[in-house]
Task: structure prediction
Amino acid sequence: MIGASFCLPLRGQQLSWTQYQQMKDAGALPDHFTLPDPGHADAPPLSAERQHAAGAPKGGGLLNPCECWIQPDSSYQLAMQPNDDQSSSLITLPFNFNLYGDLYTTCYINNNGNVSFVNPYFTYSATPFPTTDFIMVAPYWADVDTRGDDGFGLNGGTVKYKITPTAMYVNWDDVGYYGLHTDKKCTFQLIITDGTDPVIGVGNNVSFCYKNMDWTTGDASQGQNGFGGIPSTVGANRGNGVDYIQFGRFDHPGIDYDGPFNNPDGVDWLDGQNFVFTTAVSTQNIPPIASSSFLCDTVRVCTGELVNIEMNFIAPEQDQVTVATSDGSSISNYQEISNTSGNINATIISQFIAQVADTGYHTITYTATDDGQPPLTTNVSIVLEIFYTPAQPPTITGDTVACPGQGVVLTASGGFDSYLWSNGYDGQSVLVGPGTYTLEATAGICRLASNTIVVTEGETPMPTIVGALYQCGNDPAVLTTDQPYDSYAWSTGSTADTILVQTGTYSVTVTNALGCEGASASVDVLTAPPPDAFFTVSPGTQVQIGQGFQFTDASTVSGGTITNWYWQFDSVATSNAQGPAFTFPGPGNYAVTLTVTTADGCTDSYTLIVTVLPDEIFVPNVFSPNGDHVNDALTFTNVQYFPGSDLKVYNRWGNLIYDNSNYANSWAPKDVPEGTYFYILTLQNGKSYEGHVTLLR
Result:
């Protein structure tokens, strides 16, 4: 680290800038030396073409109604040629700049990220504030190297400035770091004023503005690849060891920040920051300092535009806690998303979507108070002009389910100039995975917020093919899946839910209700012999009521094994025994079915009708064949269980009037007169029933 002696009157060995650079590269600078004045550097001048390239203004910039960065234009001039550690010539200011009570009308722009008063500084390793060795305002004091990796300044960035009657602007634009490194760049800006210039607000006289900040440390400051070593410093220092402000020191990438007085922080925290403050005060007790990208005169907002405002208040004194509030009550849906107090900074994040009813001017007022002795308060107001635009906000459409390993395409409605999605992508359509998405679309100067769409992760179906995996004889195998799906694509080309197949290998790809696809494992269908189902019954196919049957399996299979027996005793009961006994509960004709299954899954069935006979036949004493379907026929209860029963009917004179050798309760005569008749019912077993029956109409 270069000592404070470099800020004292020059003394010691006289070095040219070339010698200085060679010794710095070699790490061999002496303890005491002098250098030529900044305006007499002995580096070779750039050609006109290289000067033009080095001084060409950079384009770009985000669409932001309150961008603190002011892009150099033709009114700017180079502060110095591409160099390392050099300074501008003495610059005269047409106004008084107040640095904690000291008024200055001249300054030097130092290549290494600061503006100094009294003396130029080539010191490349920054020290923390306060210090008695330096009088400077330092938006980013670090080892800036604008020579570029070719050594001629084509890509090392530029340091430019312009002066107005009340302000000086200095832009370090896309600058590299020592030595000759351009793999990482930093872009930052300093504005100093007399305190009356509205560009940073009346009452303020210093503004620090940052774009992309990618490095912290040069090689000669113990850095490696732009990080580590001696940290860079951000702040302002009077040079009396008392009056100063320090926003932080930075030595690594990242957005971590623990305050200006503690450990060094991540340089990415500076990206997009804007510090506006005044040095026309005593630093014994400084009120909280506001930082926001909305610190400008008036922010124009369109109806339908989503506005997110982040306001930070940094506590300049160590260990002070800052508490902040906001008031945007005149805006219909203004709300604070978060409000965090702290001894590093207080942060309020607020949000609203401008409505038609909000058209006009509004003010959001912020109040931040620290707990110093005495407590000090900072009041900041943001003026918004909300104006009506007929443009309708964009609408996002698309599938809301993303299948695993796949994305879905979300598309915004057309007619906008640009689109910026919440995941950082642009364009009217975007391929996304699961998550919550919105977008902002620009129409002219309006940036309109879309609806919110939530994409969830779908479930991949995992179909399993089920069915008999054997072709049994000439019968095809039946394949399906373990559960239903919306669509099917079998390896056979079929799209049915069930297929009939021959011997071979088969698979299926299915789509579920969410539109996600999944494929089954392949199955092999083999050839297997079918069984021949058969059984016998004893004591026979007919038994008396209360008597049971014994069923004996007699099924066969050639070249296979029967492994399962399934008996269906009509609708009464089932059994899986190989040879079950069964007694039916009452008389009747019953279908008994045996289904056998082989080890290969082949099946066959055999059905036999068995009969349970009743104990008795019940005879009638009267019937009325009058066609009313009630007791129309001569009915002998249970006669149906005795096929081949013979019925003879005689009138009172002994004449045979009806004879049926297989009576089934069917005699309902229409031409026989009323009266009493004699009958004889003879069963095949020889048993007979005789009696009289009365026929009535």
Observations:
- Helices lie at 17-26, 48-55.
- The two ends are 134 Å apart (CA to CA).
